[in-house]
Write a structure and sequence with these properties.
There is one protein chain. The protein has a domain of 56 residues. Helix 2 runs antiparallel to helix 3 and helix 3 crosses helix 4. Strand 1 and strand 2 form a beta hairpin. Helix content is 59%, strand content 2%. It has a two-stranded antiparallel sheet with strand order 1-2. The radius of gyration is 25 Å and the shape is elongated. By secondary structure, the protein is mainly alpha-helical. It has 9 helices and 2 strands, in the order H-H-H-H-H-H-H-H-H-E-E.
Amino acid sequence: MSESPPRPAGGLRSVRRGPLAEAAPQRSLKGRALQWLAQREHSRAELRRKLLPHARALAALGEEGEAPAQVDALLDWLEANRYLSEQRFVEARVSARAARYGNRRIEQELAQHGVALDGDAARELAASEQERAREVWRRKFGQAAADAAGRVRQARFLTARGFSAEVVRQVLRQAGPGGLVEDDGQDRGA
């Protein structure tokens, strides 16, 4: 049996060192943007923030023109060719977060990315918030707290997840001694 050639110490890939390491081809800004968009949806602001350091590095090497203008032109091209879509980004982010987080948390995350919910999406989220909070509560706790400190801990958990105080109050009110009971719409004196 013939012996296989030795593998590099770092695994299957070898690390380039010396003058050839500098000659490794750099991806263009468009290539980077398309790669990131192929992995997941990005907001325009997020993609701009990621691309600017690379554009500045290329500008410093003298390969490209003004970095911010170049990035903005690329983002305009990506939007015009439907590679970049704020609407798809919002839909993907809401879809990924809705099962675990409340409206406030989702809206705050979208605001960090420079986008906002449209009216229809906001209404849909508001309509399902209590049900989503109940499910998050059930998965985490499953039964009513035995004392006031436990109720405070449960309320703090749901509030930290971005559910409104009114929804948290309703979910904890519905939690009876034997677990979560169905709400029949009556106030139980709480």
